[in-house]
Design goal:
The protein has 169 residues and is mostly helical. It has helices spanning 22-41, 43-58, 62-92, 96-109, 114-126, 130-143, 148-162.
């Protein structure tokens, strides 16, 4: 239980550190607001600030938080890899709708992985979803060098079938 005058008591106004000069207090408030506005205007600073807040809330160090994030990413990548096998089997069996759904889920779990966009583009071609195939192949191209030639080929196929072969590059 807190006592009056206890500096750790958040409910006791006497425990707050107010400067004697009210103008100094307002200057501190404005400075804090300016710093927060600066942090929240820059996405990288905002993310760093939010990670620091999360670490403070949980008591984790930065290294512990990074290890936890790596574990989570590895678990998501493993789930995606398992689902990819199911998607491959569905594709081989001609169940394109199921394969499309599975690869969509893989892409949600691991959005940085271009393979799932590339596979989904192939399925979209089979389902005659040419606009989706163009988007997925383009996403695969943007996300990395993995099978870039195949991604360009699939995008070209989709544009050709969509009637926009002149845009294929």
């Amino acid at each position: 239980m807190f006592r009056g005058g206890d500096p750790l008591n958040p409910y006791d106004p006497a425990s707050l550190d107010f400067p004697d000069n009210p103008f100094e207090f307002m200057r501190r408030v404005q400075e804090s607001q300016r710093r927060l506005a600066e942090i929240y205007s820059d996405p990288e600073k905002r993310e760093e600030y939010e990670h620091a807040e999360e670490r403070e809330r949980t008591g984790e160090t930065e290294s512990e938080q990074m290890l936890q994030e790596k574990r989570e990413w590895a678990e998501e990548a493993a789930k995606s890899a398992e689902m990819k096998i199911q998607g491959n089997n569905a594709f081989r069996n001609g169940d394109y709708k199921t394969a499309f759904i599975i690869y969509t889920a893989c892409g949600v779990l691991t959005p940085h992985e271009p393979l799932y966009c590339l596979n989904r583009a192939a399925i979209a071609l089979k389902l005659k979803l040419y606009e989706t195939a163009v988007k997925d192949a383009s996403d695969a191209i943007e996300r990395g060098n993995f099978n870039r030639v195949k991604a360009h080929f699939r995008r070209g196929q989709a544009l050709d079938r969509y009637g926009l072969a002149g845009l294929a590059t």
